[in-house]
Amino acid sequence: MTTWNVAEPTRLELKGEVNDLTVRLVGGRINVVGADGPARVEVSAIGERPVTVTHDDGTLRIVHGAVPKWPGLLWWLFHKQFRVDVSVMVPVRTPATLNVVSGSVVVSSLRAGVHVDATSARVTLLGLDGRVSAKVISGSVEALTLDGEVELETVSGEIVVADSTARKVHARAISGSITCDLDNPPADTDVRLDTVSGEITARLREDSDLRVHLNATSGRVISAFPGLDRVGRGTVVGQLGAGTGRVAANATSGTITLLRRPVDLDVEETA
């Protein structure tokens, strides 16, 4: 086992394989990227509290030490002592678990699953595969070009899913909006979008094979697909294509908008 107690800007190049990553930080910025080559850790800025980096039997851990349980006012006065900016490069097949109290998290190009848990943060997920989940109490989640199975949740904030080819997408916001853009979803796609207080906007390819169920309890549903059936003011149901997958959206208070994505648009974007 190799351990570093990092108290100043440092660049570490690890010897030996890394097949698991765990990050637990109080505050700052975390940037994790999957790439070829040896694993590296770079701390570009750090506050008064050091960070411990441990490499043990293929597991890489980057953590803050014991965090005092200060009352609310003292926390806001002293939490900057824990601020740290960390960039990590690991092999693309490394599963990652990231926890942060406040700050920002960016994860890209990992293919074996990612879990992010944050209290107050902005989370950005780019080009991931496997089981991908992110839970934020206060803050936003932006997920771009994801595959695999995706679960996103925020209590107060916005969720954006774009260019997704994931088989499963579950997104839930208590107070905030959800935007979901599906790019050629698989035949067995399962998409569920839920918000208590906020808007839902979904865009589907016009050649999608999906069963559709949209319901706004206290709001309205707007659909760009004329073949779907309207059941009252707040419910739209029906089938697109073969209906082998499904998309369901529920809003307690807010509007649900279903947009249509022409297939020709994808051809133009590729060109």
TrEMBL record:
UniProt name for this protein: DUF4097 family beta strand repeat protein
Taxonomic path: Bacteria, Bacillati, Actinomycetota, Actinomycetes, Micromonosporales
UniProt superkingdom: Bacteria
InterPro entries: Toastrack_DUF4097 (IPR025164)
Domain DUF4097, residue spans: 54-258
